[in-house]
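Quick one - first record:
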Amino acid sequence: MAVTEITATKFQDMIRVAAHRINKNADFVNSLNVFPVPDGDTGTNMNLTFQTGAKAVLESNDESVGDLAKHLGKGLLMGARGNSGVISSQLFRGFAKSVAHKKSLTAQDLADAFAHGVETAYKAVMKPVEGTILTVAREAAKAGLKAANGSDDALVVMQAVVKGAKRALAKTPDLLAVLKEVGVVDSGGQGLVFIYEGFQEGLSGKISSDVHDVTDEEMNEMINAVHHQSAQVQLDPADIVYGYCTEMMVELGDGQNLKHFDYEPFRNYLNTLGDSTLVISDEEVVKVHVHTEHPGTVFRYGQQFGSLMKIKVDNMRLQQESIIEREGALDQQLAQKPLAEMGVVAIAAGQGLGELFKSLGVTHVLNGGQTMNPSTNDILDAVKAAHAKHVIVLPNNGNIFMAAEAAAKAATDVEVAVVKSKTINQGMTAMLGYSPDADLATNQSEMTAQLPNVISGSITRAIRDTTINGLAIKDHDWMGIIDGTITVTDKDREAAGIAMIDKMINDDSEIVTIIVGADANQTEAKAIADAVGKQYPDLEFEIHQGDQPVYPYFVSVE
């Protein structure tokens, strides 16, 4: 049946189903990351971004599509995480502007809105790259406009948008050589296809049986990423139903005493033990996160399918009590303390990294980075916590640039500038150019000038077989990444570290700094430094504890 009018109720259906689709497929989108590293988070970022906007739409009682779209755009902007999330927010910001003041939408209105969204998103990106989410959005909008010329059925337009998006997605490897080499389509483009498919399904009313109304609890979990962030300060610890944040990693096995792993029954059972369940698996390993009252039951269940490689339990009630005490004391201190002229916010994950940044003069450290890209709103909160009239933000990750810049534009009571540090190493080096007595523009300029003075390296483990830049990489190999390029692979982590540092050294090198992650150790770091030192006796070495996840070692050569 033709849909000649998109009402507010129908628009909410579109958003609801799209929110489910991107949530259900976030892990698949993550798997399309070009680099075979464990922090591919495009799907996570797009999912959390879209859930924030969807929550704003679904909680609204407005009867105008224009008003609902405004809520969507605002929610997406404040919840935007990573470059893919920010670009998504801009697509729907333009969409919202196009339909402002419209009570309902015609087929032409819908097509025009998608086209206006593309225009807005392209303007927001300084150097648009073909073969990305932007390409998929543009070609989808073109297909929608063409369909609207011949039909007044909004469903026909939406179907054309989806087909156009899929055609463009299939061509992304032809536009970006690295996608073709690795054998994947663009991850952001794939995420957008899932969202558009949700729109089509919600508009048609023919919703798959596996699509359900996202509950408030599920929505809040997806938005707040509770397994990464603190609970809200106003939450009473006694109100926490499931008090133990429980994580495990199971190495799947075969044998008479082990059950065969089947994803759906496995996850469904864990859902009966608590909430905030997250299950990620491949053929060899399953990773679990769940909030429960019975961690032991979770671990015993996991052992039925293989051996426990890693377990972790946090008492969230005790954590919440500490948060309330700490946040209350901080608010009181800030209220009594005059605003500083200048402050610096650095984004980093790991207690040791936080201490290192503060020792360099950083005012406030926002927990985030690899696998935990903070949202625009998170960065705004960190700027507030810096308690200064002027604030520099160090993203320390290229995927956080756009969210940081969005926060800088959204800040009202404080002037914010972003120094585009791509790595933790660059962020620390940038602090050498910082002066609390200089003005904002001078600090931004001086700190930016420091960025090229460091060569950044990191060690992490491959999560799949691939070939990139002509380098054959096997699953579980250790990789050495220098300034964003994988240059070394080895079965042995120590050997990979030594080989990577050797490639980082040049005639001007003087100091090598090794930052030890949560899954590494000082003994191995010293062995790496000693081995390189024998080859380069004039170099100085520093070893610091960073506690960062995902990357056992960060290395700076200056």
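second record:
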Amino acid sequence: MKIASLRQISVLLPAILPLPLLAAEGAGNTMVVSAAPAQTGLSALDTPAAVSVVSGEDMRQAAPRVNLSENLGPVPGLQIQNRQNYAQDLQLSVRGFGARSTYGVRGLRIYVDGIPATMPDGQGQTSNIDIGSVDHIEVLRGPFSALYGNASGGVINVETQTGQQPPTLEASSWYGSYGSWRNSLKATGATGDGTHAGDVNYSVSASRFTTHGYRDHSEAQKNLGNAKLGVRINDVSTLTLLFNSVHIEAQDPGGLTPDQWRDNPRQVVSNVTRYNTRKTVDQTQGGLHYQRQMGENDDLSVMMYAGMRETTQYQSIPAAVQANPTHPGGVIDLTRHYQGIDTRWTHRDTLFSMPVTLTGGIDYETMTERRKGFENFTAAGYGEKGALRRNERNLMWNLDPYLQTAWQLTDKWSLDAGLRYSTVNFDSDDRYITPRNGDDSGDARYHKWLPAASLKYAIDNSWNAYLSAGRGVETPTINELSYRADGATGLNTGLKPATSDTVELGSKKRIGYGLITAALFQTDTKNEIVTDTSLGGRTTYKNAGETRRRGLELGLDQQFADNWRVKAAWTLLDARYRSNACGSESCDGNRIPGIARNMVYTGLAYAPEQGFYAGAELRYMSNIAASDDNAVKAPAYTVTALNGGYKWQVQNWTLDLFSRVDNLFDRHYVGSVIVNEGNGRYFEPAPGRNYSVGLTMSYAFQ
């Protein structure tokens, strides 16, 4: 497979991100990559950053193929938890960034086939990722994530499969506890080998997932489609067309207080059913990626995309609370149109007899949002769309030029560096103005230089060490800017972006058919964005001052005895406030809520290409503070899972039948927490022991 060169720092820098970056080769995720156009292959061992790559085969191995949380446990530094609530997405954070998000994903940048799943204001989601068609997933942590713009914690890049010969048709089904099932179809193929004008490759997939849910009032269904069509225009250029669509209908069970969780984790509070809390999401997007080899040492890449996302959400806010004239209501009606273009030029040359790669580009993203709020009751009853309480048009855009370079200084030393100038703009036009609800229109703009650099030393051919540093930025979202704590009209323009400075020391060692990695880091953040007030139905935000995250990440992926494979990851993360973030009560020295201090994953698998296979895994999570004052903590837990199956390959047919059991010992634990939940309902319970079975059949037209 020909994929982007690490000498072009494809894994590290945003200019190269839309390309297929890395592909696992063999068990230990020991990557061998070649340039496009072809150059000398390099190993992921040479990447001077904390980056993990999980292949699509690993993501699908004996798994439901519904959530990213299923098989990303071996990635150090990544805390990803299933809320058991498809109305609020996964709870996902990297090195503690994003843990405070009550819905969606914050503090990270997510890309799917080069199209951002993170909007210009930094709010992202994972619902459009089709695990059945994933080729590989890359998780970048540390200083170089700053070069992707509005994200402090890291980057998750998802690349779907590129069709190849022979044409293959695949059908897959999975059935599990709590009335859960998923059916999917996928077709892949190609005409020619991709090197001649007119050669075409394709990958098309569709799936449907439904569940009754572990908890009361947690039913959900999701229809997902994904398509990728590539065409070689001539000897020097290619064009890739991308399409993705998702429809979700999900009930929202909400959180529980600690006492409610201990009493009955499957219950919901009365307001949840009274107001029939739920969410509907429809998203459709398309993209066009043009690549051209301009000369022996020059490449051009242009990525364009556009999409629309419509969301309707019914919340459990009591009618009495909405009596406040400034309240936005209990129903959110949101339509977003987004589009963008990323253009870059890469040049490879020598300088003072040293190989050097230089990439320059510009990234432009924009989003127009129509946001309305309605009462969640009418004369006919609760849970119905009522009177209008909010109406605004929001415009967000970012314009980011960037420059990056990679130098091979000597046989042992190399230097990678980059600089991005990020501009993020907000403009809000309030169209719901009454005598007691003033005009909240306003605008804000943020600028930030984002540098990063890494120096690597190759101790020998199988062992290296690196030192890197960088600055990241996290701007407020439009929700966080909407209201001011003093009750005055207009945007909360006093809210500043959070800036983070990170230093990282890391090392990687190839051992046989595996790879062991280690990273030691410290991140100091100024102006961390936290909740300020929650009164009269309006939540306002402020800057908390300073925080510090210190951590150690260890990872191991090792194949031995031909068909055996072991994976392990340990994350030690101490994340604390260094100033007061609790109003009148000091939080200086407290743990930042939503972040586990210790995470451990171990997995052992017997996985031959054919025949019987089996696996076991263990996950440990230490206790997690649920609020800034650290008064409530979700208890630590350890859970175990087992899986086993049989794979047949008969002529053109491949059949894979498996079963699995999760939470084998039926542990009672909290799957995720809602940080600083105003009613004290911090806990989102995880299911007890549960079972599932799956079957995948494919036929290759050879």
